[in-house]
Amino acid sequence: MSDEPQPKKPRPGWASHEPQAADTPDDARDDTRTDEAAPPRSDESDAESGGKDGTGPGTAGGSKTAGVSAKKAAREERRAALRARRTGWRRLVPTWRMVCGAFLVTALLVVGGFLLGYALVQIPAANALATQQANVYLYADGSVIARDGEVNRENVTLSQISKDAQHAILAAEDRDFYTESAVDPQAMIRGAWNTVTGKGKQSGSTITQQYVKNYYLRQEQTVTRKVKEFFIAIKLDRNQSKDEILEGYLNTSFFGRGAYGIQAAAHAYYDMDASELDAGRAAYLAALVNAPSQYDVVAHPENRALVENRWNYVLDGMVDEGWLDPAERARLTFPVPKRTTHSTGMSGQRGYIVNIVKQHLTANKIVDEAALDAGGYRITTTLEKDKQDAFVESVNDNLMDRLDKENRKVDTYVRAGGVSIEPKTGKVVAMYNGIDYVKQYTPNATRRDFQVGSSFKPFVFAAAVENGSRTQDGRRITPNTRYNGDSERPVQGWAGPRYAPENEDHEDYGDITVSEATDKSVNAVYAQMAVDVGPDKVRETAVGLGLSPDTPDLDGAGPSIALGVANASVLDMTQAYASLANHGKHTPYTLVEKITQNGRDIALPERRTRQAVSREAADTTTSVLKGVVEKGTATAAQTSGRAAAGKTGTAEEDTAAWFAGYTPDLATVVAVMGQDPVTAGHKSLYGAMGLPRVNGGGAPAEIWGQYTRDALAGEPVSSFSLRLQPGAHESQPPAPDSSGGPSSSDDPSAPATDGSDDPGEGDTGSSTPGDDSSGSDTGSGDDGGTESEGQDSGGTGTGSPSGGQGGDTGDGGTGTGGEDTGGGATDDSNRDELPGPGGLSGALDGRRWD
Prior knowledge:
The protein is α+β, with helices and mostly antiparallel strands and 850 residues long.
């Protein structure tokens, strides 16, 4: 027996602690658990032998290397076996492990992408195009004047869109809108497939997605836009109701003819509001959304059959969904849209009106300029379409059609402006600003750069009556007060430079009453009267009646203020004359009846009526101005067929001619102006229309007469009811120095000193009692005024010189000149004046006004 240690025989159950290959077959590993030792494997023998001779890895490292090699060999063996089983086409088919893995990865990517997109894509602000709207300007009757703005859109609420229109859109675009989710992947896939296969370009988008595209995004066809549209639609569906989304969609969709939104489309194709659309018209508009340009059968009649098919598809869908009765459907015929609707551009009078109304809104702080630029306002003006049309027609008939611009250069200078106002309400019912806004931009109704001429004179007389003014020799100024009317007579009592105005054609009139001087527009008389009243008081009266205090050349004019050197606008002059027509009550004019934005009313400022001058001052002025129409410089205005009062005027060098007049129901001012179309400088109108000169009694009065007749056609004829100043009809002796010498008094307010005429009694409002034979009124009143009544035919009124006037008396007294001569007072309404003493008209009664 050797001294070297001998290997021990393994005990039963012993197993080697050597590491085993992971891929060792189970039966091999199980051999180690037998009661007897297994024969050594070849690799173990090699390891032992190597350990003995020192050439093999007899260490633990060697054992590990051998184990790794064995593992690799086993793996290769298994792979080879698998490859042996997957030969031919089987190698191209993924295994179930591959399919499951790909599915899981795809699902993770989809879910992760959705969550990431939902988190990253936010609902943006609306794009600029979607928020832009037009401002809609309407006549008082609701018909459209114009729409301004770059985008023709007027947003309306869902309640302002007919149910037929709502259902037609749903039938055409998304019948399951109220029941489906915001997006429809199946429809998107179907739409994409139809587009690819040539069945027509289809988006497959829901109404919600289309609204997102219209309102929040752009129209480009990109993957990025579609992805954003997808996520925004989902979020929007959670934030807004279906009704809100449908309303937004109907207001942002494009229908062709430049119309965005169903309200604009309804007007563009059928000239009606969206609330008035029936099923047939609504179905046509719904069909347009699919192809707005191609489906306009007026522009493309060759597509009529295609459009009718689409129209029928929409109606059938409405029937299928229970929105339209089949019997009604059967009765419908294709509603061909209008070839042309009312123009909503800026041509003609429309552009002028839009700009003037805008200025009115901003000047009165109703809407600021930035808000108007954003659009969305529906502005109902006070303008009446029939009166507006009548004004344009009258200007054309009496002026524009008489011009020969090719043969008379002066005719190229002619411009016209006009305004008409209801005296009692201050509403502007018609305006004329020029032949065409796109040809002449300056609005002639509101410009303040032409003198008003003698049309200013009534303000001087009204100021005289209002202030109880007297002549230089102390006589009260009334319609019968006499003045020296000689041309170039120096004005008396004026502390400034010598002023001696010329009369027209240098005519001398000698001793003349105020009424006659008004009829003949005598400058010498009114320049003196302005000094007698005081230029500052004249200015105060003119501004009170309606002229702007900022009127150019109104301040500091001195005696020349009476001759109309001020550059008032036609609109300002009309407002002032309307105050005279309204018995001295001034109501600020307005151009806006109502204004709304997206269905919400905008508050309008309160307009307060005030007594600018006393009724006696206004009515006495009216009585004088009636003579201008009846027998003065404005007889052409009698074509109106109405009781009328007014005054003509001519600017220096005939650069402008005016007629300002009124009936009890309507105040209108017309001006004809001369302006060089190239330099914009003022030009004389000598020779215009082939006439030697143009004055207020010509074209302006003729325009006024025809317009007033047509504007009031069908309305009851009314007469002036006037309350005159005390002593208005009393004859007065001439001035002590009728030749124009020095005044007998340096104080214009000094009382009369000769006692021959006692105008002061008229101030007390009392009458001399007792003269029954004259029919004088024995009562007294608060203001002492007398009333002139309208009569149908002749008669004269008599009265006492102390202010009590002949007429009906409450105690059974008799009076002449009235049709109703029974006991008791007569009705003063709707009756005109008759010729009375002193050349004035007026049948007078002696009643006093409380």
